Amino acid sequence: MDPASLRVPRGLTFSRLLSITSKSPYAVKALCELALCGASVPIPIGELARRRDIPQQFLEGLFATLRRAGILRSQRGVKGGYLFARSPSEVTVLEVVELLEGELGAGEGADDEIWAEAVGALRDVLAKTTIAQLAEGEAQARGQAMYYI
Q1: Is residue 9 included in any domain, yes or no?
Q2: 105, 66 in Cβ contact below 8 A?
Q3: What are phi and psi of 73, to 5 degrees?
Q4: Per-residue pLDDT tens digits for 49-105
Q5: Pairing label, strands 81-84, 72-75
Q6: d(C-alpha 45, C-alpha 122), whole Å
Q7: Which pTM value belongs to this model?
Q8: CA separation for the pair 44, 78 (Å, rounded)
Q9: Residue 86 lies in a domain
Q10: Which sign does the torsion angle of CA 44, 45, 46, 48 carry?
Q11: DSSP 8-state symbol, 130
Q12: What angle do CA 89, 102, 114 make, to 5 degrees?
C-alpha cells in the first residue's frame, strides 16, 4: 500500500510530539562507550563506532553536534579523538536527545492532557538519567570496573 494513499481520520494529525530517531540511541550508546573507556586520552571515533557497531560517518555527525554543544571536545591528529568536555555525570539523556532531535513535546497535540502527561513522564525519566549512570549499569552488567565516574 502506498503511504501517500493512507487517509487520516478528520481531527487526527501526525506530529513530532514524541519523535525519537536512531540518532539518540546511537549517540547515547557511543557516549556510554566513551565513559567506559575512562577517557583521560582522546578515543578515536572509529574505535567507538566499531565497538558499538555504529556507522562511523553517522557517528561523526552526531558527535559534531555534541561537540558544538559543549558535551564533548575533540583533538585532531594521530593521537586524536573525543573526550568529554563535561563529566558524564552532568550529561543527561534528555539533553542529548533534545540536542539531536529537538524539544520533546513541541509538536502538534502537546496541549492535549494525555499527550502532555506522556511527554512529561518521558522527559522526567530522561532528565534524571545521566550518561554516567547508564555506563555504570553497563559496566556492572559486564562485570567490569568503572574508571571514569
Answers
A1: no
A2: no
A3: -130, 155
A4: 999 999 999 999 999 999 999 999 999 988 889 999 999 999 999 999 999 999 887
A5: antiparallel
A6: 29
A7: 0.82
A8: 9
A9: yes
A10: positive
A11: B
A12: 95
Q: What is the distance between the alpha carbons of residues 26 and 29, in angstroms, rounded to a whole number? A: 5
End-to-end CA separation in angstroms for the chain: 50
110-145 confidence digits (pLDDT tens): 667 888 888 899 999 999 999 999 999 999 888 865
Diameter over CA atoms, the chain: 58
- Judged against a pLDDT cut of 80, whether residue 46 lies above it is answered with yes
| Boundaries of domain holding 110 | 21-142
Number of structural domains in the chain: 1
Q: Do 139 and 145 touch, CB atoms closer than 8 A? A: yes
Grid cell locating 126? 530522561
Angstrom distance (rounded) from CA 135 to CA 18: 25
Cell of 97: 536527545
CATH number of the domain where residue 138 is located? 1.10.10.10
| CA-based R_g, the chain, Å | 18
- HEC string of 33-82? HHHHCCCCCCECHHHHHHHHCCCHHHHHHHHHHHHHCCCEEEECCCCCEE
Provide the 10 A C-beta neighbour count for residue 59: 21
Q: Is residue 2 part of a domain?
A: no
